[in-house]
Amino acid sequence: MNQPPGGGSDSTGRVIFLGLQEILGRPVVVENVVGGSGAIGIDVVKRAEPDGHTLLFTASIAVTNQVANPKASYDITTDLTPITLVGETAYIMAVSHRITANNAKELAGFARTKELNWGISQFGSGDHFASAIFINTIGTKALIVPYKGAGPQMVGLLAGEIDAVLAPPTTAIPQVLAGKIKAIGVTGLKRMEQLPNVMTVAEAGYPSFEATSWYGIWGPKSMPPALVATIQQAVAKALKQPKAVDFFQKTALTPVGSTSEEFSALIASTLATYRAVAASANIKVE
Description:
The chain is of the alpha+beta class. The protein folds into 2 domains: 8-88 and 212-281, D-Maltodextrin-Binding Protein, domain 2, CATH 3.40.190.150; 90-186, Periplasmic binding protein-like II (D-Maltodextrin-Binding Protein, domain 2). The chain is built from 10 helices and 9 strands. It has a 5-stranded mixed β-sheet with strand order 5-4-6-3-7, sandwiched between helices. A 4-stranded antiparallel β-sheet has the order 1-8-2-9, sandwiched between helices. Helix 5 packs across helix 10. The protein is globular and about 55 Å long.
């Protein structure tokens, strides 16, 4: 795990690896190796033996960070072996209760009267790119405040350090249901079953806006195809276990369990999409 405890990657990964432990009959130790927008954890896997004993579970930030940082210490397409896309979801647009907006359109109006402090989970993360697209779409400016993961990002919103976020459902939904923050939008093209009264950003007046995040598993490069297939098939089984099904339903995650080839295609398309966004929004590590 290359993300800190308490975020979407951490909670989702632990559910999956608990299932893998049961299916494979081997102990699985989850270690959070954080720093460098996830690059430090990726480097650990990059240098490991391709024997299946060291795996990376992370979100699409593994791809988006490489786009934002041309000098990243890894190349996601050559230094790792994609094993499977675990699941995908939309972001929840959430604000503190002091923000009067109740949907994305109203937030745009509010942002024209007062510059927003907009929290992102990390510089170069998927929600950073999605936030930049939204801010550009509504034609305003915002002060981007980076954190060290989705967990710390949510703590910042709860503490009033920031006004708005695009957060993964795993961290946002519990706080919304507890009444501690306000959900005003969903970045997918349909509403979330868990928050049926929260309209999509598209419904609020921005029909072309859509942003999603996903979680996947990689191994070191040059992993034997048979080993990759064994792990992929075990993950697919883990996704069908009752604990995983319940977790994914509660956190608005769609389970996938794709093949390595399908995951590779998604990585390639994500790189292409966000390279264009980075150029237009000037997202780049200086």
